[in-house]
Amino acid sequence: MITDGGGIPLATILTGGNRNDITQLLPLIEAIPPVRGRRGRPRRNPNALVADRGYDHDTYRAHLRQRGIQPFISRRKTRDTNQAVRWVVEQNLALLHQFRRLAIRWERRADIHHGFLALATSLICWHRLPNAIR
């Protein structure tokens, strides 16, 4: 799961249980939909990416810099400096585990589980929106 700074889930990818997180970094960046802002082309890439030590690899840092994304990833075997910022993603993962169907996977088919995941992330987005927009 990749979120923005306010905790809105931008993209989720369903993988196997024993996959490394680093293998899904670039597909998650690609899965972010274009965001409209000022006039002109919609922005696709974020300005910065904050991640934990599991994403520490020089080739992925280079890929992020080529896309114009500043990586804030702590180096392995050092003190974690991004822990105060990463709580947003951890909070979204905790919110996803409140849904019973997502806490323990009951479905064998991945498309059904992905549908429940999309429904849960849209409910999280709905609750995070300010009341003035609703």
Essential attributes:
134 residues; alpha+beta; Nucleotidyltransferase, domain 5; two-stranded antiparallel sheet; two-stranded parallel ribbon; 5 helices; 4 strands; 37% helix
CATH architecture annotation name? 2-Layer Sandwich
User: Which fold name is given in CATH as the topology?
Assistant: Nucleotidyltransferase, domain 5
The termini sit apart by 25 Å
Q: Kindly report the spatial arrangement of strands forming the biggest sheet.
A: 1-2
Quick rundown:
The protein is of the alpha+beta class.
Write a structural description.
By secondary structure, this protein is of the alpha+beta class. The protein has one domain: Nucleotidyltransferase, domain 5, CATH 3.30.420. Helix content is 37%, strand content 10%. The chain contains five helices and four strands. The chain has helices at residues 25-31, 58-66, 87-96, 100-103, 110-128; strands at residues 2-3, 9-11, 48-51, 70-73. The strands form two sheets. A two-stranded antiparallel sheet has the order 1-2. It has a two-stranded parallel ribbon with strand order 3-4. β1 (2-3) and β2 form a beta hairpin. The radius of gyration is 16 Å and the shape is globular. 11% of the residues are buried. The mean pLDDT is 81.
